[in-house]
Design goal:
two-stranded antiparallel ribbon, 9 helices, 255 residues, Ubiquitin-like (UB roll), binds FE2/S2 (inorganic) cluster, 5-stranded mixed beta sheet, globular, alpha+beta
Length: 255
């Protein structure tokens, strides 16, 4: 059975399925604004391995993806069809929406914070400008292929499925976020459980002052702040010291 690794998670697939079908079935992070009608390009993904196990780019992909993007191995997930022909190696892909998310979140939690943010905006701008440059040919071709009504309302059939699959993507994202999905990227292993080192919170200047007052008054003053002796988990530390991997996108994986 063909295997597809989407954004570092492996899924089983069937011959003849589109990459988008596999992603939607499993709630993987991929865009499908037009419900797989080949109109929005939000399902764009970069094929990192196993491109030979997919059908070659079709006319719809050539209408919406610039020749340079196709050359770089980018495909529309709703058009690229699995034809593994018995090969055992998985098809590995990174979706555009996931790449953007990783770059954006890299600003908050990675080491290369500004590099991530610059990469995010540059990817966003490049994608938008490529898309705009393809619209004059892609849009008329889509209208003649699907009809104006379908272009305007691509979810006219299957709106329920669209909502259901969108919900599955969101809930998987939340689940992955809770289980430390970001830190697993590339390592394939789970983040070690958080250890609570015994840690005495230092007393605040206010409680020190209070303690001094109590000492002076022979203990007749108000009791010292109890919180000053409470055991806390991790001492405050800078974000850059936390146990997150640098999630800036390697050059080879950029869109
Ligand atoms: S889902 Fe819109 S182009 Fe593929």
């Amino acid at each position: 059975m063909p295997k597809v690794i989407i954004n570092d998670e492996e899924f089983e697939a069937q011959e003849g399925e589109h990459l988008l079908d596999v992603a939607r079935k499993n709630g993987a992070h991929i865009g499908f604004i037009c419900n797989g009608n080949g109109l929005c390009a939000s399902c764009e993904c970069k094929i990192l391995e196993g491109a030979d196990q997919l059908t070659p780019p079709n006319e719809i992909e050539k209408q919406w993806l610039s020749p340079a993007r196709i050359e770089q191995g980018n495909r529309l997930g709703c058009q690229a069809t699995i034809q593994s022909a018995g090969k055992n190696t998985p098809i590995k892909t990174l979706t555009r929406v996931e790449a953007l998310k990783r770059q954006f979140t890299g600003f908050f939690i990675g080491e290369a914070r500004f590099k991530s943010l610059i990469g995010f905006f540059s990817n966003l701008a490049k994608g938008a400008s490529d898309q705009l440059s393809m619209t004059p040919t892609g849009l008329p071709a889509s209208v003649s292929r699907l009809g104006l009504l379908k272009v305007l309302f691509p979810w006219s059939s299957g709106l329920g499925g669209w909502f259901k699959d969108t919900g599955a993507v969101i809930s998987r994202q939340v689940k992955n976020g809770k289980s430390g999905g970001l830190s697993r990227r590339g390592s394939g292993g789970a983040r070690p459980p958080f250890q609570k080192p015994p840690y005495e919170r230092p007393s605040s200047p206010m409680s020190q002052k209070q303690g001094a007052t109590n000492a002076k008054s022979g203990g007749s003053g108000r009791p010292a702040n109890k919180a000053s002796t409470k055991a806390y988990g991790q001492p405050p530390s800078k974000l850059s010291n936390l146990d997150f991997e640098d999630i800036s996108i390697p050059k080879s994986e950029r869109m």
